[in-house]
Amino acid sequence: MSLRTTPFHSRTAPLSEGQAWRRWAGYVVASSYELSHDREYHAIRNSAALFDVSPLYKYLITGRDARRLLDHVVTRNVAKAKVGQVLYTPWCDTDGKQIDDGTISVLDEQTFRMTSADPTLRWLHLNASGLDVQIADVSDTTAAVSLQGPSAREILQLAAERDLGALKYFRLTSAKIRGIPVTISRTGYTGDLGFEVWVDSGRAVALWDALIETGTPYGITPAGMLALDVARIEAGLLLIEVDYFSSRHALIESQKSSPLELGLAWTVATDKERYNGQAALDAERSRGPEWQFTGLTVDWDSLEQLYADVGLPPRLPTQAWRASVPIYDRGGRKQIGYATSGGWSPLLKQYMALAHLGSEHKPGTDVRMELTVEHRRKQAKAVLTPLPFFNPERKRA
Amino acid sequence: MKQYDTIIIGGGHNGLVTAAYLARAGKSVLVLERRPRVGGAAVTEEIFPGFKFSMFSYVVSLLRPEIIRDLDLPRHGLHILPLESTVTPMENGNYLAAWADHDESRRELYRHSPRDAEAYDEYGHLMHFMARAVKPILSMVPPDPTSFAPGDLAGLLKLGRHFRGLGGERLHALVKLMTMSSADFLDEWFETDVLKATKSASGIIGTFLGPRSPGTAYVLLHHYMGELDGVFRAWGFAKGGTGAVSEAIASAARSFGAEIRCNAGVSKVMVKNGRALGVALENGDELRASTVVSSLDPRRTFLQLLERGDLPDDLIGDIHRFKFRGSSGKVNLALSGLPKFACMPDGGPGGRLHRGAVSISPSLDYVERAYDDAKYGEFSRRPYMDIVFPSMIDPGMAPPGKHVMSIFVQYAPYTQNGGWTDARREEFGDAVVNTVEQFAPGFKSLILHRQVITPLDIERITGLSEGNIFAGELALHQLFFLRPAPGWAKFTTPVRGFYQAGSGTHPGGGIMGASGRLAAMTILKNGT
């Protein structure tokens, strides 16, 4: 096989009923283990879903200037970050256009783990000149699973034989699971109570077995990317190459976005040293971004009517879609933006979409979303809905 | 004394739906529930420490999608989880399974009969059209066919259009569905006995009829009505049990300003000059409202809450004749582990047997014989059972590693030779457990606790007359404009300002909420 398999493959492969795999950063991971991703999705919101997230790019940045380097690269304030903290952050080019987004874990004063969706080694090196810092690509040697859902904490506490009640949202701790050294971070891509467990690749299988064994009475369910995709839309979390383009891959200027246009203004610190894109972002902030990234909720009655007009019961996407879909104003003539992801929320019973619209449109505004009903282009009514669609208390509690 | 716009008697799911819709429309609403908790027959109770049970109603079948949307129930905690498969163990050790995946199910049926495997798709196609023709009825106030009032005529016209749209062949099939027994109807399609038995069993739930009784074919449609909602999926298992559905509706109602009072049984509706003024509570308190709604069953609504003189004699007669005849019981078990069914000891691919339903309906004769016992006033010695393991779907229902098992049982007639006694109840429980044991040897040793519920228990606890789970039998002669009585199927009563909203009104049955919603619509339209 020319694509790589993750350290968990010997466990995930036999679970795959339909041999449905998806590419991720040169690896293959399960799209869904069962023929339908239904149950895997519900596990995220009902019990606990276990994802193999090993394909993430991972870098270990160490040294006296490690903090300085990262603070210069990303938009969050790394200088102020405490040991044990995890920062979600975008990073930008000099024009303030987003290159990628990921997390930075502060493992100790001089040790940081950075995750990214795209390879970032060269970018880090380019920014590190003259700094006392070592950058190691640990993508292949560090495996990771994500355990997400209301029972995640209970399972992990049992597996790690310790109380994790004090581990706050976006904090990490080191622990041992059946003698295996791991890092547990309270992070994830589902907008739910959840954790990611980082482990040496060589111990990955043993970790998987331990979690499955401990978690089975609690309904732990291995889950694939299709289920994750639904959950991340509910959580309003964006996805590179789907909801935005890396400025380094964009071929034309209009394909680029700034974090301010992507609903990430909260990640652009105003109280920090000079960093990549600062001047451009400061200027953009003061004049106001041109675009906004928002939720849309498709109006059911409108959708039902479009189908009733051709004599059919309403149809809904059975998987989350990733396509560019035009959004019009309520008159249906003027295009005011485009949606980039969408899907049916089995939990909320809502047809949701993530969209880029002109920043002047306010929550609650009626718009029209294009969709195809029996081969013909139609427009369904949709309403601007602030993100996230789903934000349970347990996520932070 | 505080004057409410509306007082709703009974905090079952329909009463709560009515309350939520009225409160949403700006009415001041008070719900009075006799029990310490809301839900009626849709309640979750921790009967044994750590083990939670949907004590009576155990799955969500046709909860109206418009209610879920209008009341924003997911925001109030409703989470419907998939319950996708059905496995029927057979007496010869074989089984028939219907899995979530269409191809898998077809291959499974092919094992029993290649012909049936093909017929199954055609049957599904036909039923899709039937269900589409009938489904709009669920969301409409039944028009009175003997009336020439514009509203009734418009309703009849709408109905006529639905049926005309079917075309000849399908219209014939619809008439067959309305008149035939499910066994006969399925005979026209399939040769696999266990398939017919399992399918027809869904047609007898909550009725005092057997699979070979005429009129049972109609209920086969209900399954397909649920499927019409397709990916919306308003059917399945409610996280937290069916009580969570009631709690979500109650939470929605409260968010709109409704007041809900538990431990507040109502003894009478106060009527003066043919108009409802309020209610008298069992504790003697009196509460006033311009509109009073009963979500209790028709017998309690008309014969208990009102005085004889409040009603015309013909209605009293009709309600006396309205059939309840509770025929189902429930056995709730706390288990130390999952039972192994002899037909599928490993629990099927991925261990999925226990995540779906297990139907004890091995043959048509088996189910019909179960009915034979009931006809003569006995519970079935070997009953039809619909079994689910809620803790396999929502792990929160039982302590880790332990399980709850819900067994819906038919037949357990309300009118039992010699009457229901404690001893008789346990005898009934034994019959159930012993029958399961035959299909899952060793199962009995897993039982930690057992709760046996007879129709008499259902009546005592929930107030449902004769323990009928649908607040009145769902038989054709008691549906639509005949539910609960001719002339009074539109949620009104002869007492002005007094309405009915329970499952004993159209369309009734299951955790649908349609009756409650239609009642609220009617009240809002009438102005009081």
In brief, what are we looking at here?
The complex is a heterodimer of chains A (397) and B (528). With 397 residues, chain A is of the alpha+beta class.
Which key phrases capture this entry?
heterodimer, A: 397 residues, alpha+beta, Gyrase A, domain 2, Alpha-Beta Plaits, Elongation Factor Tu (Ef-tu), domain 3, globular, B: alpha/beta, FAD/NAD(P)-binding domain, 3 domains, seven-stranded mixed beta sheet
CATH class of the largest domain in chain B: Alpha Beta
Q: Could you report the average pLDDT of chain A, rounded to the nearest whole number?
A: 97
**Main sheet of chain A: which strands, in order across?**
11-12-13-10-4-14
Number of domains of chain A: 3
Could you tell me the radius of gyration of chain A in angstroms? 21 Å
Q: What's the CATH architecture of the largest domain in chain A?
A: 2-Layer Sandwich
Number of spatially distinct domains of chain B? 3
**What does the radius of gyration of chain B come to?**
22 Å
Strand content of chain B: 15-25%
The CATH topology name of the largest domain in chain A reads Gyrase A, domain 2
Instruction: Name the poorly predicted regions of chain B.
Output: none
Which percent range fits the helix content of chain B?
Answer: 25-40%
Order of helices and strands of chain A: EHEEHEEHEEEHEEHEEEHEHHEHEEEEE
Explained architecture:
The complex is a heterodimer of chains A (397) and B (528). Chain A is an alpha+beta fold and 397 residues long. In chain A, 20% of the residues lie in helices and 33% in strands. In chain A, helix 2 (38-46) crosses helix 7. The N and C termini of chain A lie far apart (43 Å). In chain A, 50% of the residues are buried. The mean pLDDT of chain A is 97. Chain B has 528 residues and is α/β, with parallel strands linked by helices. Chain B has three domains: 3-46 and 60-81 and 237-323 and 475-526, FAD/NAD(P)-binding domain (3-Layer(bba) Sandwich), CATH 3.50.50; 114-191 and 202-231, no CATH class; 328-462. In chain B, helix 3 crosses helix 4 (114-134) and helix 4 (114-134) packs across helix 9. The relative contact order of chain B is 0.19. The model of chain B has no long low-confidence stretch (mean pLDDT 93). The interface between A and B is medium-sized, with 26 and 30 residues.
